[in-house]
């Protein structure tokens, strides 16, 4: 169901597309890439799982693409129909080349409205990682009746800010991205913890060569809005994350959200999730979503 005439893969560099396709081919379940036209551009959504199963939307971190879920989809697709888009305008196959520009978080909320409606989804479970967690949280605040249960994996800028030291270290990659800088940055953040080599190349080549729009930077949600969010929420934190102080993130989530469960994933850095210690990540996600079935 990929429309080649409008597919971003026709414009993405061959080296990136090959790396992306290699990781997607390693997904342990059959996957159907679907391109969805929106006012903001064409979005690639990788779909898997039984067609009649409850829907689950997976939103990846910035620059990670939907392929990042390769270690999680087998368990998640056993119980859900999984919809994993590449984030609009970010690395991947979802160019922000439509008539409406993507300028603010509200535009991403409209984009998600369109995706869910395209697939006939009234309400779905939702899981976001890193930057994708910020988008997922924003969507739960935007359309509470469309999010049944919400999982946030090492969420950026949701309940606490990012560490200045991390932002300083990321600055060269942000200002002049190269594949070598991308590899070095995530290796530094991982601190010696393992990173999947094939997926690392998707991240590195995407950072260096894939056209992308200006990233929508979203502020932390106001405390009063978070206190009103009754959607059951799971927050999974990377024990060795250098992106933020995980205890501050946990404290903020537990203070502000009425219905939240927080857990720390051992043996994981921020950039190592959600594949590092995938067995524990999948166990916790599975139990959380099953509780709402």
From TrEMBL:
InterPro entries: AB_hydrolase_1, AB_hydrolase_fold, AB_hydrolase_sf. Pfam families: Abhydrolase_1. One of its GO terms (cellular component) is membrane. GO terms for molecular function: hydrolase activity. Keywords: Hydrolase. Residues 54-157 form the AB hydrolase-1 domain. The keyword Hydrolase applies. Signal peptide: none annotated. This is Alpha/beta fold hydrolase.
